[in-house]
Amino acid sequence: MKYTKFLIIAITSLFLTACADWIYRIDIPQGNFLEQKDVDKLRINMTKEQVIFVLGRPVVEDAFDKDTWYYVYKMKRGMKKRGEDFTKELIVNFNEDNRVASVTGDFELADTFNTPLDE
User: Fold this and answer.
1) Closest by alpha carbon to 34, among 79, 84, 69?
2) I need a surface site. Which of 52, 74, 99, 114 has the fewest CB within 10 A?
């Protein structure tokens, strides 16, 4: 009798773990989704308004340093077969004139980044 209950519990748990892939889990995207073509439009000496026009508002503005904006995008996959979780970020630093001084992060900058729009 004891072995029968144990066998039933073991088989039931084995079947339930095998069914785990049948449950649909959604992907959870969070933050600013940026495309490389949008990042390619960035130029040195752009104003904050121009950056907002190209990339949108940042997810995080540093409360202690108003001259640094963080664009962060996180994708948490619901199921491993759709790919791995990932994070991409872009950090835009402004100078004292509220113009782009530097850009760092997970994106490649265009060759024209160091050419201001005024020229």
Assistant:
1) 69
2) 114
- Smallest CA-to-CA distance from 78 within 32, 24, 9 is with 24
Instruction: Give me the sign of the Cα torsion angle 12, 15, 21, 24.
Output: negative
CA dist., res. 108 & res. 99, Å (int):
20
pLDDT tens digit string along 67-106? 899 999 999 988 888 889 999 999 999 999 999 999 999 9
* Among the listed residues 42, 40, 36, the one whose alpha carbon sits nearest the alpha carbon of residue 69: 42
DSSP state, residue 47:
B
Q: H-helix or E-strand containing 33?
A: none
User: For residues 44 and 116, is the Cβ–Cβ distance under 8 A?
Assistant: yes
**5-18 burial string, b = 16+ CB within 10 Å, else e?**
eeeeeeeeeeeeee
CB 91 within 8 A of CB 70: yes
CA–CA dist 12, 112 (Å, integer) = 62
